[in-house]
């Protein structure tokens, strides 16, 4: 964690944070990016409220508002924080977050468990194909283990007994929502539902492929769009970009 930063990337899934790394490496070439992680223990009740409260404590002494960003459940935490503490957020960037922010991959997992009489491992294998596309047997086995661990560690409140919903709506600061056209969790309809709460400065951007973790497979393409969005709301970055162009 750096002492001074412009962007705060949230991660609430220690086992899946590896899939953020390529995009973060790209973004770090243009902005000062810090990572904030939330680790939920097995003894804690699943709730994003604690994560939001801890994030508020972390940013309490930070003097400037930040560009807040996150993928999936981490994006849901970022969205909830931005609504509760708007003065601390300069812009909000969400990846694979539906207009119904509780519609995460965990919800799809539990929905399948409720709908079909198949085992946990079978549903997780289906989830790997949905979230990452067809992978080799060895990679599929590793991804099944990672998703299984994420079900235990995630602050998602979904369970076999109940699927929860969170409030829909927008935010007061500029917002960018990114997705993939072949993401079965946040499909184009779920993504475009955001338009009901958009302001003129808000943006939806979709990549044609990449499934749920499209930012892992196409970090440069995703990163270019995010940096362009940040440039509009970060004058200092525009100055740096212009200086770099003039000296290159």
UniProtKB/TrEMBL annotation:
- Per its UniProt record, what Pfam families does this chain match? Abhydrolase_1
Q: Which GO terms describe its cellular component?
A: membrane
**Gene Ontology MF terms in the entry:** monoacylglycerol lipase activity
Known Gene3D superfamilies for this protein? alpha/beta hydrolase
Provide the AB hydrolase-1 domain boundaries.
64-216
GO BP field? acylglycerol catabolic process
Q: Which domain of life is it from?
A: Bacteria
Iron in keyword set: no
Xref: InterPro entries:
AB_hydrolase_1, AB_hydrolase_fold, AB_hydrolase_sf
Which UniProt keyword terms apply here?
Answer: Hydrolase
Show the PANTHER family listed in the entry.
Answer: HYDROLASE, PUTATIVE (AFU_ORTHOLOGUE AFUA_2G14860)-RELATED, MONOACYLGLYCEROL LIPASE
Name the record gives this protein:
Alpha/beta hydrolase
- From which organism does this entry originate? Komarekiella delphini-convector SJRDD-AB1
């Amino acid at each position: 964690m750096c002492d001074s930063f412009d962007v705060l990337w949230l991660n609430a899934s220690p086992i899946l944070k590896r899939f953020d790394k390529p995009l973060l490496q790209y973004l770090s070439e243009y902005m000062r990016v810090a990572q904030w992680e939330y680790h939920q223990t097995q003894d804690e009740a699943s709730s994003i409220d604690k994560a939001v409260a801890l994030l508020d404590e972390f940013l309490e002494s930070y003097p400037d508002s930040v560009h807040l960003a996150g993928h999936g459940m981490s994006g849901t935490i970022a969205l909830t924080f931005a609504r509760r503490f708007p003065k601390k957020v300069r812009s909000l960037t969400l990846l694979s977050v539906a207009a119904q922010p509780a519609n995460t991959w965990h919800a799809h997992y539990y929905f399948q468990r409720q709908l079909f009489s198949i085992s946990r491992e079978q549903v997780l294998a289906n989830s790997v194909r949905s979230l990452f596309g067809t992978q080799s047997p060895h990679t599929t086995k590793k991804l099944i283990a990672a998703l299984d661990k994420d079900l235990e560690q995630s602050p998602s409140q979904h369970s076999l007994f109940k699927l929860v919903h969170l409030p829909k709506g927008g935010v007061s600061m500029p917002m960018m929502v990114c997705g993939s056209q072949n993401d079965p969790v946040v499909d184009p309809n779920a993504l475009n539902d955001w338009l009901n709460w958009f302001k003129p400065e808000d943006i939806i951007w979709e990549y044609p492929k990449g499934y749920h973790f499209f930012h892992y497979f196409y970090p440069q393409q995703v990163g270019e769009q995010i940096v362009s969005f940040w440039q509009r709301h970060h004058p200092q970055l525009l100055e740096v970009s212009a200086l770099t162009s003039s000296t290159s």
